[in-house]
Amino acid sequence: xxxxxxxxxxxxxxxxxxxxxxxxxxxxxxxxxxxxxxxxxxxxxxxxxxxxxxxxxxxxxxxxxxxxxxxxxxxxxxxxxxxxxxxxxxxxxxxxxxxxxxxxxxxxxxxxxxxxxxxxxxxxxxxxxxxxxxxxxxxxxxxxxxxxxxxxxxxxxxxxxxxxxxxxxxxxxxxxxxxxxxxxxxxxxxxxxxxxxxxxxxxxxxxxxxxxxxxxxxxxxxxxxxxxxxxxxxxxxxxxxxxxxxxxxxxxxxxxxxxxxxxxxxxxxxxxxxxxxxxxxxxxxxxxxxxxxxxxxxxxxxxxxxxxxxxxxxxxxxxxxxxxxxxxxxxxxxxxxxxxxxxxxxxxxxxxxxxxxxxxxxxxxxxxxxxxxxxxxxxxxxxxxxxxxxxxxxxxxxxxxxxxxxxxxxxxxxxxxxxxxxxxxxxx
Length: 428
Fold this sequence. Notes:
Layout: H1 5-9, H2 64-67, E1 69-71, H3 85-99, H4 115-122, H5 129-136, E2 137-142, E3 146-154, E4 156-160, E5 169-172, E6 179-180, E7 197-200, E8 206-207, H6 212-216, E9 226-230, H7 233-242, E10 244-248, E11 254-262, H8 270-276, H9 291-300, H10 302-311, E12 316-320, E13 339-341, E14 352-357, E15 364-370, E16 380-387, H11 389-396, E17 400-409, H12 412-418
Parallel strand pairs: 3-16, 4-10, 13-15
Antiparallel strand pairs: 1-2, 2-17, 3-17, 4-9, 5-9, 6-7, 7-8, 10-11, 11-12, 13-16, 14-15, 14-17
Helix pairs in contact: 3-4, 3-5, 9-10
């Protein structure tokens, strides 16, 4: 989410991978197949597989370990009691099933490091949650620890399962012809890693997938991909940016939808474009640089607004969700005022995070359970606020700065220091 305010809210459908483009990172997302070429299309040699990381692989440049890790204050001195500890404990427990098995991209932890805290959490009384975080973890500062926090939410927009008067904007499921493949002109020796997303035309030529303008103009119409119908294209545009949401029918029926995939085309944050053009800001005649201000401009200038939205060629496809809460990149529910999105190169997904910022709402205890296409770098977080008008207002204007600490299993810093990972010895 580039920029501030609403510009910062644009999570680039990370979802949650992020890409939303984190499609591959989302355990909840649809896996896009590597389709075989049509008959007569030369496949060429198989792509070279990426190396499989192991616990002994040195951390890559741009990871938490390579940036530098310093011990923070003793957790017993942090004000956990007033920082949603019971809710954070619940989310941490849900993260444990992944924490104890997943390779940590940040280079900070190993799956076994989390087992003692996860075992303790399973039977820990929620009423004593603050004591859990104070006793099971040590704090660490990544780089200088200075943080920037934006917000996201689960939109609720007017929508129905079936098309009806007033509900004519299609919400599409993943199309079966969206696959990964290599364009014919790509030399075989350059076909390394994951092939790009696209589609094969009738003649077997691999092309980029349909962009936003083509889809809005009907490229997918009549293919039976509609899982719902929205009333307002602007609201659907922002729901795609957030990555999940709820369609609310006139009779109160709720259809929860979540990120299923993306068309493989680049994301453009229109908030930054509008700021560069002087359309939003604090000057005379400018619209506020919040999500609400941007939406007001798009509605009051429908032709220019449509053109602006089409600058974002990325299109997000959805699937219907059941169960408790939208699913984040960790594969577990994200929860309002508890979950944050982070860059997994700098934060172990599932780890508790302690924030002290210039916005009271974001100060306190969080759990990193999601990612975002624009949430990159150390100490960059996107706070999740749930659903409803209050969540929408807070997330739409969230821009906070302050300090961040990671809570890591006890002994992590000493192990990193002894391994010569550029980490100062843990505080005694």
